[in-house]
Amino acid sequence: MIKQLHISNYALIDKLDIGFDDGLTIITGETGAGKSIILGALSLILGERADSKATRDTSIKTVVEATFDITGYNLEHFFNDNDIDWDEHECLLRRELSPNGRSRAFINDTPVALNILRELSTRLLDIHSQHSNMLLSQPAFQLSILDSIANNGDLLENYRQKYQQYREAERQLLETRQAIEKMRQNEDYIRFQLDQLQAMQLQPDEDQELEALQSKLSNITELKEALWSVENELDSEENSILMRLTTVAQRLEDAERNLTDVEGMAQRVRSALIELKDIAQGVTSIVDTLNDDPAELARVDDRLNSIYTLQRKHNAQDVNALIAIQLDYERQLGEIEHNDDIIEELTARVNACKEAASEIASQLSAKRHEAASRFGKDLLSLAMPLGMKNIAFDVAFNTTDLSANGTDSVEFMMAFNKNQRPMPVKDTASGGEISRVMLCIKTIIARHMQLPSIIFDEVDTGVSGDVANMIGEMMADISRTIQVIAITHLPQVAANGDHHLRVFKTDTDVETLTRVEQLNSDEHIMEVARMLSGKDLNQAAIDNAKSLINHKHKND
User: Fold this and answer.
1) If DSSP codes are grouped into helix, strand and coil, which group holds residue 25?
2) How far apart (Å, rounded) are the C-alpha atoms in residues 161 and 156?
3) Under 8 Å between Cβ of 183 and 335
4) How far is CA 6 from the centre of its chain?
5) Is the pTM of this model over 0.85?
6) Which of these, 140, 169, 333, 365, could form a disulfide with 350 (CB 3.0-4.6 Å)?
């Protein structure tokens, strides 16, 4: 429910703070006092288009701020999904209009897009007037009424999950068919590319091994010369390293006989000699294997050039990347060759998901038909006393393909005169009749679901007497379940209020301003009396006002 409304710098309002309570709050005031201005400010909270002409002082910003009690509303997921601070008890909505015409929206002081503000505010506040009640003619709204009465919330949520699975299965089948068709169109190309890759018989890391071999074969002469030099230095017939070290070992052995300080050194030299002889033999063996082979070098060069060509063609970094591309081509051809099995499997899944959704859709439809019958009876019983004694009502059902709401398309059919064939609401009802029908509908569905706070904006226009009494009592009945705010000119409606706000204009030296005052019990009586008698307030009007108000309390 809305608890507090703050408006500043809007039309005739310089600054206004209005408190609201639960139950039925009545708002009255002379024509032009500013009731519509307050509703216009509220429409900004509901995400409506901002009109820069409504700004009172163009040098400062316009602010409209509403505080709501959201205890019991299941909204935590909305706040989490939109990264907004969550308070399970209170929510603050704000709209600001800058002098430059820029509009900003906030939820709990977090800047949000206007559509996010609109999505939340419409769950918290619902404004109804003769001009806004065309909502009743919308099939989606009509269907939601039946679902509310049938208590289809859980069943509808279950259905939508199944329907989403069905749609996802259909999407996957369509995308797979498109992919397979595209692959079929590219089959010759894929097969040609694959044949090229397979013909190469590529091996993992082959390019690295070939590059190493190419480097060796390309430098065979230099390598042999270097190793021959090593071999000659180590073990030639004259003055080689091995010969000189042999001489060193012998002299150390001679010295060991007379000098203990060199003991063991000869043995260490002999060990080095063994290691160097082994190295010399190894170098000799390697030199024997190094044969200049131009044919092998040419083969390696050709192989590497072929690999490099493929790498450039496929934009591949190395042989391993080419192998991955080859495997992907093989996979694609495999899918093309086995696409019938894939399509058959996906089609079976689509059919299974559709059957599961259709089964729940049938349950929804059955409950909606039963709810439509009950709803029609309840609607007629409430509408007839409101000056619509000849009203007739029916719900036309049409079966559709599976949609987010099932397989039902509904249209409310009404007639308001004798011998009139029921027709769609939009084609048969006047503004006043639609307003009263909507009031009846809200009375019915308020018993079945948690509704937003409702503001009725002069929906009682054009009625009087007993009908006005009935409208007031119906609003009071709804207010036992949800917060109701009614803007009215009818004393019969005003008498049913739990709280009463009077809107009026006051003049200063330089301007006219809109003000709102909270009426106490005595002031409430006097305001209803003024509505009964006009400017000439008399005791009879006061007594009549007391009678109307006392009648309301008796009903409570």
Assistant:
1) strand
2) 9
3) yes
4) 30
5) no
6) 169
